[in-house]
Design brief:
The chain is built from 22 helices and 15 strands. By secondary structure, the chain is α+β, with helices and mostly antiparallel strands. The protein has a 5-stranded mixed β-sheet, with helices on both faces. The longest helix is centred in the last third of the chain and has 18 residues.
């Protein structure tokens, strides 16, 4: 395959946002910018880099990206951006301090709900209802259904948009390794992929066919495709099996769990799973592996998968397996149905103690402006793209692929980190010779996975439906419980404990955490069976 000179730059990992000019809340001001007569104040903002490298010398409070939102709102900002790997810890410290900045961006942190319950943040519904452009990216009906704090009924945050994202989950294979060691034929089973990995390892002894990123209490991030083939969600301590009556079980109690653990122990023993996998707690290490250590497969959601495509080394989406180590209806390999077009894990709040709530809302609207969207995802006209008479755009590779502009995505936490697909796809089409059929294969697979996902029944909304019936004390134990599960699994995979010790540890675990499982099943009974609202 002929590769053109331009390198394709992926603009993010981890997480999601969207766009358009935003109207003012409560009638205070006009769409398109702040009233020039308003006093210019300084807002404190807390957010994350989402794993994106910010070049040295960049002022996160004063640069071309954030300045668009600042001028829209007629404010200055003191913008604290926390590294993604530290986000959960730093958020917990912030919430414990009680000293909240004007704007707080949180991500996948259970303690946030307690802070919301305690009145730490403003109800944003009045602002939202008067902001038609925010509503164009955050669907009003979905927001009213899913966006409230379930205990109080208040709407304390604006979620990240997932409007642009294709649905479904899949894994990707590095294209040159796929051609060389699989002969360009997709295996139908996980055993088939292991055989490909063995050929790769035999030919390239220093390769790492499977690498992972362990974030906090969760293990096997970006490498959970084999767990899912066994019907196991390795990122939770409890789960609702793909088949069953909807009640919760310990992940350890799934019949295939021990077999899945043995499978991963085999990968570790053969060197197919990186020998240092458990110490890989930094996403940058994982990124380095897939760029430089001959990683064969990566798992991710379809919207994030687009960011890998047409980058060197080249990756291509893998069609769903047709053979599983468990009955197909019990597997959970791909095609995840999205609950809504919002990512409720990422949320933007205005502190109840803020002296400038109206200005803070205007700044949030500024983060939704089409000008910022274009700059983040397309760049500058004449530098990273050219505008055609018919309205279409052509990529200028040298400018589009400039790594120094990628940090703009950290300001896209309303748009969604996986947005800008039109720009990404335009860039891909210019990166590789189209006669090779590479892009056709990508788009066919993406569309087919998206189509299948959209036909699936929406899963039971356990997180948003039963969580309000669980005590804060029990929910606060989630990370500890998952960390203990992860510790037991990792010790078994690396041979620290044997089969008998593994099963004994599982028995102790299920007894220790029985109250946690009981609480969730009681909540399920109350909310779903007995219809308690």
């Amino acid at each position: 395959m002929k590769i053109k000179t331009a390198r394709f730059l992926a603009m993010a990992f981890a997480a999601i946002m969207l766009v358009s000019a935003c109207g003012s809340a409560g009638g205070a001001g006009t769409v398109g910018g702040a009233d020039a007569a308003e006093e210019r104040v300084t807002l404190r903002v807390f957010s994350t880099d989402a794993g994106i490298t910010i070049p040295q010398g960049v002022n996160t409070s004063d640069n071309p990206y954030v300045n668009i939102a600042k001028e829209y709102a007629n404010v200055d900002v003191n913008y604290e951006i926390v590294p993604w790997g530290d986000m959960q810890t730093r958020t917990n410290l912030l919430l414990a301090s009680g000293d909240y900045p004007d704007i707080v961006h949180t991500a996948y942190n259970d303690n946030v709900e307690s802070a919301e319950d305690a009145g730490g943040f403003l109800n944003l519904l009045p602002y939202f209802e008067n902001s038609p452009v925010v509503q164009s990216f955050i669907n009003k009906d979905e927001y009213l259904k899913y966006g409230s704090n379930t205990k109080t009924g208040e709407y304390y945050a604006i979620p990240m948009s997932a409007k642009e994202f294709p649905e479904g989950r899949n894994f990707l294979v590095r294209y040159d390794l796929f051609q060389q060691y699989a002969g360009g034929v997709f295996p139908s089973s996980i055993e088939g992929w292991v055989e490909v990995a063995r050929k790769l390892k035999a030919d390239r002894p220093n390769s790492k066919p499977f690498s992972v990123w362990n974030a906090g209490s969760s293990i096997f991030n970006y490498a959970d495709m084999f767990w899912e083939a066994y019907g196991i969600n390795i990122h939770t301590g409890i789960m609702q099996p793909p088949t069953g009556d909807g009640t919760f079980v310990f992940t350890f109690q799934r019949p295939a769990f021990i077999e899945a653990a043995k499978f991963h122990k085999m990968l570790y023993d053969e060197g197919l799973l990186s020998k240092t996998w458990i110490t890989n707690t930094d996403i940058s290490t994982f990124n380095d592996d897939w760029r430089n250590s001959d990683v064969l497969l990566i798992a991710d959601n379809c919207q994030q998968s687009e960011l890998y495509l047409a980058r060197e080394p080249l990756w291509v989406l893998v069609p769903p397996l047709t053979e599983y180590p468990v009955p197909a209806e019990e597997a959970n390999p791909n095609n995840t149905k999205r609950l809504s077009s919002m990512d409720l894990g990422h949320r933007v709040h205005i502190s109840a103690s803020s002296k400038y709530p109206d200005q803070a809302w205007k700044f949030i609207e500024g983060l939704c402006s089409p000008e910022l969207y274009d700059l983040i995802f397309w760049g500058e006209e004449g530098v990273s793209y050219s505008q055609n008479a018919d309205g279409s755009r052509d990529i200028i590779p040298e400018g589009f692929n400039d790594p120094d502009r990628a940090y703009g995505l950290v300001y896209g936490f309303i748009f969604g980190y996986g947005s800008g697909l039109e720009a990404a796809r335009a860039a891909r089409r210019g990166a590789v010779d189209p006669q090779e059929g590479y892009f056709e294969a990508i788009e066919i697979t993406l569309d087919s996975i998206d189509k299948v996902a959209k036909t699936l029944k929406t899963p039971f909304e356990s997180a948003s439906v039963v969580a309000d019936l669980i005590s804060d004390d029990i929910r606060a134990k989630a990370d500890e419980m998952l960390a203990e599960q992860s510790s037991i699994v990792s010790e078994y995979i690396m041979g620290v404990i044997d089969d008998a010790q593994f099963e004994a540890r599982i028995a102790d675990y299920t007894a220790k955490w029985a109250y946690y499982l009981d609480a969730y099943n009681q909540a399920y009974t109350d909310r779903v069976i007995n219809k308690i609202k």
